[in-house]
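Let us work through a complete example step by step.
Step 1: write down the sequence.
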Amino acid sequence: VERMLEADHELPVVLLTGHADAEIATQALRAGAADYLLKGKVDGELLRRSLLYVIERRRSNRELELIRKAIETASLAIFWLAPDGKVLSANAAAAKSLGYSVTEMEGLNVADFDPDYPRSVRDSHWRLLQERRHLSFESRHRRSDGSVFPVEVSAQLVEREGRELELALVQDLSARRAMQASLAQSDRMASVGLLAAGVAHEINNPLTY
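Step 2: predict the structure and record it as C-alpha cells.
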C-alpha cells in the first residue's frame, strides 16, 4: 500500500484479503488504504460498490482540496463564522485586510473587528440569515491598528460537517469610495464651470450691445 501511494498519492487502494486480522486492517488503513475487505464475506456486487465508492470519495476529496486552495489564495476576504459570530477560519486575504495573521484570526469574533455588528445584534442577524439563506449588506471593518474601512459583505448560510455556518465574502470598498468621491468632485467642478459659463454669457450680451 505504501509503495503504491508513493508512486501515485491519489491512487484509491482497496485491500482484499483472506486474513481477518484487526491489526493488519488498522495498519493498512493507516498506511493509506481506502478500504479493507475480507474474501468470502464480499460478493462481486459489494466489491463493485466499494470500489466505486472509494473512487468517488477520492474524486470528492480532490475537488474539496482544489476549493480549499482557491479559498486560501483568493484576493477576496473569506470568513467561516459560527452562529455566535466566532471566526472558525479565515483566508490569508481576510487576515491581511485586518492586520492579523491567519492563526490570530481564529478565535476572534465578528464584533471584535466590525463596529456595526456588536454581539448584541448577532442573534437577530443569524435568525435573518437562516430565514433568507443569503444576505448582502455594507458595513465597516476595523484593523488591528484601529483604522476603519468600508466593506461589502455577502453572507451565505451553508452546512459543513453537520453544522450550519456562515460563509462571508467581504470586499474592501475603500478604492470604490475614493473613486466615487473623485467623480463627485469632478461633477461639482463641471457644474461650477457650466454656471460660470452661463453667468458670463448673460453678462456678455448687454456688453456686446
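Step 3: interpret the result. The beta strands are 14-17, 35-38, 77-81, 87-90, 134-142, 148-160, 163-172.
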